[in-house]
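Changelog-linked ticket: zinc ion example.
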Amino acid sequence: AVNHALGKNLIGAFYQPKGVFMDLSMMESLPKREIATGLGEIIKYGIIYDADFFAYLEQHADAVLALEREAAVHMIARSCEIKAAVVSEDEKESGLRRILNFGHTMAHAIEKETGYIRYNHGEAVAIGMIGAADISARLGMIQEADVARVEALVARMQLPTKAEGCTVDAMYRDIFHDKKTINGKVNWVLMQGIGKVTCRNDVPEDIVREAMAARIGK
Ligand SMILES: [Zn+2]
């Protein structure tokens, strides 16, 4: 994927890798903030595909944060398995693969409004996932308790739950420039529960704006 002046990852081509290699010693050399950033996307895999994996992250939060060997191997392997399962079922990003975009619609707006500097990608995704969960609850698709679980796990993994330096008007404008926007309709990936998501392009503007407003602050 290539970045463009109009936004991140706007130009892309499809090539599947021959193999995926992960070196835990490399990961252990990363600063804590980078580890938390990766955990943003790892939490996403639990929300979109695997409730047990989400529960595992809740129950093993300390081991996960400390990168204890067993927890680190499990969380990385499971994330890769889920991504591979989703991508191999849908190589050209037509349907199922869109679920990988969970949390990213709001995240891209946050990244853009903060100059791609204040928050790194996983931090913006973490905030965006709570935003998407909030929209899902406002539409009656999930319970408030599910939103609370998402927010609690994000916070537990030392990720931000709100974004500073954004306005609702700017964020709302930005979501229409996202590459996932089709015919002027924003395709939201929303929750039907922990471990299950679906795409919807009929979210009313006031609900999006309310969810965005709830994500702005310290
Ligand atoms: Zn991402």
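Closing comment: Example verified and attached. Residues 41, 104, 121, 125 surround zinc ion (CB under 6 Å). Strands lie at 2-4, 7-11, 188-193, 196-200.
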